[in-house]
Write a structure and sequence with these properties.
The structure is a single chain. This protein has helices at 111-125, 145-151, and strands spanning 26-27, 35-42, 47-53, 58-70, 75-81, 85-91, 95-104, 135-144. The chain is built from two helices and eight strands, in the order E-E-E-E-E-E-E-H-E-H. An eight-stranded mixed β-sheet has the order 1-7-8-4-3-2-6-5. Helix content is 14%, strand content 42%.
């Protein structure tokens, strides 16, 4: 904190998280499946989330915010990536995508939200062919297969 500053940088409010109804969120493909890797890489304005399923299928999303809830034994490693980016790896023995969803970060009545919902559903139905050309907010729930079995 610089002298004379009233608030340190970490006390400033973060970007508004989408406060949408469940109808404005799309469930991520791969929920319930084992994961080989979860990687969040980028900077504050340009980031990518990569989910690599144990089947080998990769889900890549351009993100402007990611929330992660972890249960069981999940290890989080943060490393510098180049001069101005960060890489966050989520790892664990028998890592599972317990839950996950994505939403466009505009207002719910924004016409882009409706286009996002249409395009995201089509992208998932196509088997993730091509790219989803939206900046999205993502919520993940990660766990180990042991924690999933214990919860069942």
């Amino acid at each position: 904190m610089l002298r004379g500053d009233r608030n340190p940088w970490w006390a400033l409010p973060y970007r508004r998280w989408p406060d949408h109804s469940d109808a404005a969120w799309i469930t991520l493909p791969g929920v319930g499946e084992p994961l080989d890797a979860v990687i969040h890489i980028g900077n504050g304005k340009d980031a990518k989330l990569i989910l690599v399923l144990a089947s080998g299928r990769a889900i890549e999303l351009v993100t402007n915010g990611v929330r992660v809830e972890a249960e069981g034994s999940v290890e989080i490693t943060t490393t510098a990536w180049g001069d101005s980016m960060l890489r966050i790896d989520y790892q664990g023995t028998d890592l599972v995508l317990v839950g996950g969803r994505m939403s466009f970060t505009g207002d719910i009545d924004d016409p882009w939200t409706e286009m996002f919902l249409r395009d995201a559903r089509a992208w998932i139905e196509s088997g993730l062919k091509g790219e989803l050309l939206y900046d999205v907010a993502v919520e993940l729930r990660l766990g180990s297969s042991a924690s999933v079995a214990a919860a069942a």
